[in-house]
């Protein structure tokens, strides 16, 4: 069978700084040769462009470089990589939103991308009208939409509000409707980027189920970009890992995930054990934006290796952009295999409405809790039962060394995802 | 689940690669997306009047209000004669073509900026958007005809000025200037869309272009009132011919030579052809910058 997606040497060059949309004055100056030397542009997280990504002109870089792969019909492919690794650029090219700089891709079938659900929804139009609008934007014929209409409405669970303008919908309803339209398009190729970051847990489950059904029952191909390792592990048959615009690994999800997670981490910041965002690449939604995540020792100094009997503070600084109510942060510690060691939330302390401003939430992990191994910090922010504010994502990893731990007495790995300090009492019983 | 959706042809293939060439308009694809065109037209029409009491009635009121202002300002205060045609009728006729033109370029002149969000998320032939603007304003044009026709009938048959209005066979040619305005405004909005996507400064400039354009077009003055020295300036404006043609067709009044028509039509076609090229150049990678 011919592969449904064939990508050959695909590359995409971006210009930095005043990308394209320059002012008239700049062009005039450039034309008349008066343009001053531009200061070197800053790449994400204020790092200069890595050598191998630098493009032919100053201020340009390869968002994708010589990427080749092919996908068979019916495969569900997970795409992994850090922010800026080229995942989204790939999806944008495959969905024909932007053109590649060189190389080519052949798609055998209709492509639908869910780069963000609800694309083209018009707030003034009713749910019914938006189903037709959204479907048409995605390339559906009117008759096709009409044929699927009841199914879409049922899936979205918005029956009663069909003739209400969507601007009066709750964000949950909005997302459900949007996903429902997209899920019923029946394209040969479906591109999904973090779409499951929204909606409540029940609906997420439904979406995952639908995705699975789309792939297995109808033999469609699904590209799935996510930071949620659990979903990638359970849904995908293959995974592709991007690093710095290049495809570095393809294989079964388990292998690719462990490679991704071992590569994930401190290399991206100057000081190990923290990520500080100061640019527009910070994880953000319309109402909340992360500023930094730090792993601090007892003295408040960020680091990545902790002794097992010493406390660790996971500190998250964030900015509330719009009044928000009832949001909570959930911290999950994962092992490298993707198992959840445990989870914790600041829910109890976040019942109130938060006005725009800068906030900090910190979780103190007491000493004598963790085992001698590597942990991945997984963080998400949501409003329980309503929606996700920030999608779940893995951010940092740290290592717990065995000093002072009961397991440290032995050289071999100590089983268990955690190793809490427990008390033992040994006594001799009189017989 | 029932398999209702039409299956795409077996050898359906999309090839993605850097595009070459000056101009390759995906006509077949635009036709494939005709349903989207209809939905966009519907969206524009519905959303514009949601939550207004008068709704589409505004289309009827707008030209009447503007013409009434013209009667007071240009007819009354400035005292510009209208070649013996009743002033209200003269202005309404001039506004027919002008409103259609100015609405087209106002709504369609910033395609990339207004749809940045949409274009950044999903692919469809981008030309659908400016085309949908031209089509949906056609509905507004049709509604605008109503007060004009009422006025026309009133002046022709119920006033002593009726004699100044002549119904001739040219009435049948009225769709031609409309087509001309559509093509011209399409070309201008393509140019404006392409240039504003690249240079934001031009958004502000465009407002002035529209204002100046109105004064440079014989809307509230007849060509007979323009001094010989300035006539060239009026004819340099490709919109003058269709506006004057409307008057010739509908009121039987006006002056127009063959050479002016040829030049204006040629200019309009040239603007549209080059506009398509400019639009397509920007379209390829605009998402990377807006």
From TrEMBL, chain A:
Presence of the UniProt keyword Protein biosynthesis in the record: no
- Supply one GO molecular-function term: ATP binding
A single Gene Ontology CC term: membrane
Task: Kindly state which keywords UniProt assigns to this record, in alphabetical order.
Answer: ATP-binding, Nucleotide-binding, Transport
Record-linked Gene3D superfamilies:
P-loop containing nucleotide triphosphate hydrolases
Pfam families this protein is in? ABC_tran (PF00005)
Q: Locate the ABC transporter domain: which residues? A: 44-269
PROSITE patterns hit by this protein: ABC_TRANSPORTER_2
Which family does the entry's similarity section mention?
Belongs to the ABC transporter superfamily.
Q: What is this protein called?
A: ABC transporter-related protein
TrEMBL record, chain B:
Tell me which residues make up the ABC transmembrane type-2 domain: 54-282
List membrane-spanning regions.
57-82, 88-106, 127-155, 167-193, 205-223, 261-279
- A GO MF label: ABC-type transporter activity
* Cellular compartment(s): Cell inner membrane; Cell membrane
Q: Which UniProt keywords apply?
A: Cell inner membrane, Cell membrane, Membrane, Transmembrane, Transmembrane helix, Transport
This protein's source sits in the domain of life called Bacteria
Cite the InterPro entries for this sequence: ABC2_TM, ABC2_TM_bact-type
Q: Which GO terms describe its biological process?
A: lipopolysaccharide transport
Q: Name one GO cellular component term.
A: plasma membrane
Query: Its membrane topology, per UniProt?
Result: Multi-pass membrane protein
User: Sorted alphabetically, which PANTHER family does this protein's record hold?
Assistant: INNER MEMBRANE TRANSPORT PERMEASE (PTHR30413), TRANSPORT PERMEASE PROTEIN (PTHR30413:SF8)
- Give the family per the record: Belongs to the ABC-2 integral membrane protein family.
The name under which this protein is listed is Transport permease protein
